[in-house]
Amino acid sequence: MANIRIPTLVCLFLSMVLGTYATLFSPPADGMPPPIFILGDSTADVGTNSYLPHSKAIANFPYNGIDFPNSRPTGRFSNGFNSADYLGKKFGLKRSPAPFLSLLTLGPRFKKHLFKGVNFASGGAGLLDITGSNLTVIPLSEQIAQFSTVRDNLTALIGSDATDTLLSKSLFFISTGSNDIFGYFVANSTMPRDKFISILICAYSDHITTLYNLGARKFGIISIPPVGCCPSQRRLQKIVNGVDGCFEPMNDLALDFHSALDTLLGNLSTGLPGLKYSLGNAFRMTIDVITNARAFGFDHVDSACCGSGYLNANGICNWTASLCPDRRKYLFWDLFHPTNKASNLAAETLYSGPTYYVSPINFAQLAS
């Protein structure tokens, strides 16, 4: 030992450290869950907006989270887990990957979490940067920029080739578009609806292509549900037209969007080598629950579980709101968002449902 020179000792020490480093920060082994990257809006937000000091779209207070472990509000717009969590569970995780902004608070521990994936979704966000801009949220373009940062970190850890391989196996789930439609109606836009749909689809095309160029290959896309049937829009229907029921102009726009998105994804899969996709028809999934509520175990598909006033849709869910006694019987948690139970049903359908609901393959097939 006395004859070993100092440089040799340093080399031995560095090799030990680097070996440990490589063990700590190595890609998932075969058989481990693939990394999951989630982008979108409040249907998939697991706490992102709680880290935005001036955001007006937050849910980190009761009664939100009443059915989450320890009845803890987490920033999810739900009484418990949301669809991002249940999809995470389907692919071997305990819940959704953590929000990107929460990982930034971990310092050096940030990097070891990246191999599970990251959730970038921000409540109130949309396909267009202008959507939700008055709420202080993170639009999809900025969420993708955050993913680019994650990619850079992965490359620094495991190298460019290994990062490309890892991302080619990763799953990218996107749930967005509803807030863009809300914005169109709130603004009383005079833009022709077909032109508005074209703008949304062009934005979606750009976003997917950017992710593809960053290494994404497997896309699980969740289309827009019948947003006109949310308690908030049923209330609008009552106020504007004096009748009960869904606000159909919004539903018509959601249907047109799904048809255009289906065409777009088919074209992109032809033009971008290696791209695979699965498109969840959230409109059809939700309408079938609304029209056959009892078959799915729901008693209430028009009113919110938590809120105030007509259909519990006059205000947000907070500690002063009226709370339903049995959340399992409600499709809607608040005036916009589904309950824990409804989110679980959606994830089950996306994961293993037939082509009637998710096509051309389901999310399980997408991962294989």
**Cα-to-Cα separation, first versus last residue:** 52 Å
Largest sheet entry: 6 strands, mixed
Specify the overall morphology. Answer: globular
How many strands appear in the DSSP assignment? 10
Task: Provide the succession of SSEs.
Answer: HEHHEHHEHHEHHEHEEEEHEH
Measured as a percent range, the helix fraction is: 40-55%
Query: Which ranges are low-confidence, i.e. pLDDT below 50, for 5 or more consecutive residues?
Result: 1-24
Strand numbers in spatial order across the main sheet: 2-1-3-4-5-10
Tally of helical segments:
12
Radius of gyration (Å): 22 Å
Structural class given helices, strands, pairing?
A: alpha/beta
Instruction: Report the β-strand fraction as a percent range.
Output: 5-15%
Q: In a few lines, what is going on in this structure?
A:
This protein is of the alpha/beta class. It has twelve helices and ten strands.
Describe the structure using short key phrases.
alpha/beta, globular, 12 helices, two-stranded parallel ribbon, 42% helix, 10 strands, 368 residues, six-stranded mixed β-sheet
Tell me what you see in this structure.
The chain is 42% helix and 10% strand. It has helices at residues 6-24, 83-90, 100-103, 140-158, 160-169, 178-186, 193-213, 231-241, 248-271, 282-291, 340-352, 363-367, and strands at residues 36-40, 117-119, 171-175, 218-222, 276-280, 300-304, 306-307, 322-323, 330-332, 358-359. Strands 2-1-3-4-5-10 form a six-stranded mixed beta sheet. α2 packs across α11 and α7 packs parallel to α9 (248-271).
